[in-house]
Input
Amino acid sequence: MPRTIWSGAISFGLVTVPINVVSATEDHSIHFHQYHLEDMGRIRTRKVCEIEDREVSQSEIGKGYELTKTQVIPITDEELRDLPLPTAKAIEIEAFVPLESVDPIRIGEGYYLQPAGQVAAKPYKLLRQALERSSKVAVAKYAWSGRERLGLLRVREDAIVLHAMRWPDEIRDPTELLPPPVELSEGEIEGALALMESMTREDLEGEEFQDSYTEAVAKIIESKREDRPLPEAPEPKEQGQLLDLMAALQESVRKAQASRGESGTADADIHDLEPKKTAAAKKRAKKTPAKKTADTGDAKNATAAKKTAKKTAARRPRSA
Output
């Protein structure tokens, strides 16, 4: 059972839903400690008071705001909990919006909201079903860890999930990171769409979406524990220089189809790869057979002229 991170209530108009907040995710990564390589002694971080030059315990440590190098204002956890804000003890829903209207870059860590006791069961279910039926999400304010935050409430199966949200001024402007202006052909865009289609999935299940890094680290630890040779690193994939974008797209489509056991060629999926013939080119193509006919007629006329010349020469009287 995950531990409770925060307790309070969801404020939904005049409806109050007592809730407990628990983490919605788990960390399965392998974590390391720091050691002294000479004797493998554990390296630890100790908290030392700079004035007394001694290590202090956690019970002696509190928060403070530094006004100047010599003046610090102490702030207690109790003072932060008793802030004169409605969001200090409640998640205040401010609005309901379509999920598509929220930029995903603003959405952060997720938490499950658990109804706190039987009294919360009915209003909790009411809010969950209202969110589900409306196909909208709720945007709320709440205060944790010494700051007020925005949050997004949505439905996941039978639970309500709270996502931390970033304030608008916390999102950096990407303008200065954009590439210089370039031109794309319609064929290149069609090729990219064909590649996307060949890589489309209905879900995110499969070995492609497993944590290969953690598995590889676990194999290294197991090999060293049993004094066996370390697993060999796979050969890195060749990253050839991109010379022909269309060729790269076609090859990518072929590989994606092959990995999914599909037959066919990329040429069948990527349309309009060759420039379309212009009207002038089509006219020239139509005129070509006529030219050949004209050439054939000229040859026949030349042959007939030669025969006539021979007959005329045969009829002429021979000179003495």
Observations:
- The two ends are 133 Å apart (CA to CA).
- DSSP finds seven helices and 13 strands in the chain.
- Confidence is low (pLDDT under 50) at residues 268-320.
